[in-house]
Amino acid sequence: DNPLKAQAYSNLYAAWQARDRALATLNWYLGKPSEIDIAKAEAQLAVAKAQLEDAQREWERLKDGPDPNDVVASQAAVQEAQNRVNAQYLIAPFDGEVVFINNEPGDVVEAGSLGIELLDRSRLSVTVSVDESKILQVQVGDKATVVAEALPDLTLNGKVTAINPLGTVNQGVLYFDVRVELDESDPRLLVGMTADVTIQLGEPRAALTVPAAAVQSDDAGEYVYLVKADGSYQRVDVVSGRILDDDRVEVSGDLQPGDRVLLLSSAATTTTFGGRGEPGAGGVIMRGMP
Question: pTM for the full model?
């Protein structure tokens, strides 16, 4: 199985045969040889014995496997040769596609100048600005959903991977950049597209919500008017909670999903289940970080 080992054994066998031939020749000359013939035969025998010793040493070195030092030296030689080959090419640190070429063959370029632009579409991210009143609720690892404005039917999942601790002021409001990396990409997405981002704050939970305009209060506490099937109204006491960005409020009380409640404008609406999140944030789709 080992070509070096097989070659060493072949050399050893050939050395044995050469020694035997030389010894036979010497024995023949010992019958009626001249001094010159004897000296010549003895020299041939000495050479054959030396070759045999060399072959024996090589066999002993290779019969139990290669010398670790030889392996290391061979690996170093291969790597050095590979490095010489690699030096003839420009090798990117990640897989991607060339989207822009700045130079043509024959151009004179300076060291460090941008020659080509490589894009990794498999790792796209969106940077969204979150104002200071909500930034402390966002944590790295929070799940998020992303919908590109140009592809409203495509919803992609992602997670928060970075929060810039340095904020910027825009129209008197302090904002912090939050990067959301997409779990998967889509070939229709283009770098620079705008997108709506919803960041899930904490673990999702079901919550009963009603329009804020449906909640009223008196000396007995907060309540809503439930619109019954026959069109009559029934007071239901509730306790309001968090107010959401879409002018709805979380409530607890004797209500069920799908119940209709009376608004102050006398219009009926339907209660829904809502999850915890941060809807309505906007961002820009960006390339993945290598």
Answer: 0.45
What is the biggest distance separating any 2 CA atoms in the chain, rounded to whole angstroms? 141
Please give the average pLDDT of every successive group of 10 residues along the chain, which has 290 residues: 74 82 74 68 80 77 71 80 73 79 83 81 87 89 91 91 92 92 87 88 75 89 90 89 80 88 62 38 41
User: Which of 80, 176, 189, 185 has the alpha carbon at shortest distance from 128?
Assistant: 176
CA distances from 199 to 127, 141, 150 (A): 12, 10, 20
Distance between CA atoms of 236 and 170, rounded to whole angstroms?
Answer: 44
Domain ranges of the chain: 1-89, 125-204+280-286, 207-274
DSSP E strand stretches across 111-232 = 116-119, 125-131, 143-148, 155-163, 168-170, 173-182, 194-199, 207-211, 216-218, 221-227
Q: Which CATH number fits domain 207-274: 3.40.30.10, 2.40.420.20, 3.40.50.300, 3.40.50.1220?
A: 2.40.420.20
- The sign of the CA dihedral 204, 138, 132, 162 is negative
pLDDT attached to residue 56: 76
Angle (nearest 5°) at CA 151 between 148 and 156: 55
